[in-house]
Design goal:
Protein name: Prefoldin subunit 6
Shape: rod-shaped
Strand order of the largest sheet: 1-2
Family: Belongs to the prefoldin subunit beta family.
Number of domains: 1
GO molecular function, one term: unfolded protein binding
Organism: Ogataea philodendri
InterPro entries: PFD_beta-like, Prefoldin
Helix content: over 70%
Strand content: 5-15%
CATH class: Mainly Alpha
CATH topology: Helix Hairpins
Largest sheet: 2 strands, antiparallel
Structural class: mainly alpha
C-alpha cells in the first residue's frame, strides 16, 4: 500500500514536471522571439547614418530619441534577454534530468 502511494506521488510529480517543462519551453520560445526582434532592430540601427532621426513609441506618442541612447537601450535589452535565455535553458535542462530520474524510478517500481 505504501509503495502504491509512493508511485502515485511520483506520477503526480512527473506530471507536474512535464507541465513545468512545457511552460519553460514556451518561455524560451518567447525570449527567442524577443531576441530576434531586438537583433533586427540593432541591425537596422547599424545601417542608419549618425544624424538619422530615431523615435520611440511611448503610449500613443512618438518621442525623438538620441541615436546613441537608442543603440545603448537595444544593446542592454539584448544582453538582458540573453541572460534570461541562459537561465531558462538551465531550468529546462534540470527539469529534463529530474523527469528522466523519476521516469527511471517509476519504470523500476512498475517492473518490481
Amino acid at each position: 500500500m505504501a509503495s502504491q502511494v509512493n508511485l502515485e506521488q511520483l506520477s503526480q510529480q512527473y506530471t507536474k514536471l512535464q507541465s513545468d517543462l512545457s511552460d519553460l519551453v514556451r518561455a524560451r520560445q518567447k525570449l527567442e522571439t524577443q531576441f530576434q526582434e531586438n537583433k533586427i532592430v540593432k541591425e537596422e540601427f547599424d545601417r542608419l547614418d549618425d544624424d538619422a532621426k530615431i523615435y520611440k513609441l511611448v503610449g500613443p506618442v512618438l518621442l525623438p530619441q538620441d541615436n546613441s541612447e537608442a543603440n545603448l537601450n537595444v544593446d542592454k535589452r539584448i544582453e538582458f534577454i540573453t541572460g534570461d535565455i541562459a537561465r531558462v535553458e538551465e531550468k529546462i535542462q534540470q527539469h529534463q534530468k529530474d523527469l528522466e530520474n523519476i521516469q527511471s524510478i517509476l519504470v523500476n517500481a512498475q517492473t518490481a
